[in-house]
Design a protein that fits this description.
- This protein is mainly alpha-helical and about 425 residues long.
- The chain has three domains: about 1-120, no CATH class; about 130-260, Serine Threonine Protein Phosphatase 5, Tetratricopeptide repeat, CATH 1.25.40; about 280-430, no CATH class.
- Helices cover about 60% and strands about 0% of the residues.
- It contains 18 helices and two strands.
- The protein has helices at about 10-25, 40-45, 50-65, 70-85, 95-110, 130-150, 150-165, 175-195, 200, 215-230, 230-250, 265-280, 285-305, 310-330, 335-345, 365-380, 385-400, 405-410, and strands spanning about 425, 430.
- A hairpin with a 4-residue loop joins strand 1 and strand 2.
- This is Tetratricopeptide repeat (TPR)-like superfamily protein.
- InterPro entries: TPR-like_helical_dom_sf.
Amino acid sequence: MLPSSLKLSRAATATVARTVQLGLASFKPSSSSPYRLIHDGIIKGPNVNPVALQMIDYALSLAKSKKSDESHAQAMLVLEQCLSSQSSESQDVVTHNSKGMVLLAMSSLLSASQHWLAEYWLCDGNAAVAVFVIVAAMEALAGINLEMGNDDTSSVHADKCLELLGKVDLKNSDEGSEVAIARAKAIKGLTELVQGNLESAEPFFQGFLDNKGCIGNAALSYGEFLHATRNFSLAKDIYQKVIQEVAKKKDFTDVHALAACNMASEEVLLAATCSLGQLEVHMGNFGNAEETLTTALNRAEQLFGSRHPKVGVVLTCMALMFQHKAKQEHSSSLLIQEGLYRRAIDLLKAPPLDLEVNRTMRSRMDIIALARGGYAETLCIQENRKPEGEKMKRWAEAAWRNRSLSLSEALKISDSSTRMPVVDARIVRAL
């Protein structure tokens, strides 16, 4: 059943039905669709229904066309029709894989439109489902829970992914055992990073540099681990590798690159660009940082529209960049900082300052706290606005969730600190 906000009118339903019947036969998948999670290699790959893949790409392209509730609802109807067309009695691999791909597409669509519905997942470890579908589902499910602030649940899903791979005979499989295992380890490493456990995260990234699975999400999480542990040079190499590979679709044209929701390739590209911009800030390269973060901002707006919370994530990073630059260069950019912080806080849909912080507030709270904490600093240095700044500072400190860094440490970026804060734009969290 569709969420109430996505239900179609009768006229819209009829329109979609006619579109599916008349337009799908001549539809050619678009290689430039930002919502694209189905790649050419998968379309040509084994054990997947080509008609189902065509309908998936059609639906995702339809959703992208207008970025509206109506277009998302129409796309969801196409996917539901595609799912219902798969035989409910068949137990063959093609049917199971096709159903899994449709469910992944539904999840991506709901994620893009900010509707979190876990029932659209196929991740029960059914032996008939290909390994690449299972890994994509478990990886994305862990990522969505991280974005929602359900860290324990995310960790459980990451553990389950590793457990499922342990039960599959990957040695004699053509599903790419090294890639699958690397992705499973990386998502577990990311869950540890989010919880501030650098030592616990480290084993999951050992040997990654020369690993064939060091691509996409796995590589980005590895880069963020290096970044957080201040291995700036290697982190920069990894970020640039991810950006180049995703932008050129290198190594992302096979079944092993299948991903969904906030783990899909376009989100990886956005997050890698945003992380690289932050790294340039931490290295003192403010010119490069501004250029890179501007690129990330443009990508976020193109992917989600100008009013999406993930645009607010990038704006927060830009505001922090101007703040750090002003401190280091003993200059002033208060108007720029304030404008960026105010817009970021608005897009992040921050709760009112008068609303007391409680533990049920999870989604985006890391970044909201960073934005309000940074904004509070710009207000506190202005004598006539200091009371306003102090109130905002108290709220931000109460909202801060990171277990290994205080908010003041995250805002200060000290050279003596053993770890460096990194904003992950995929999951909207501060690592």
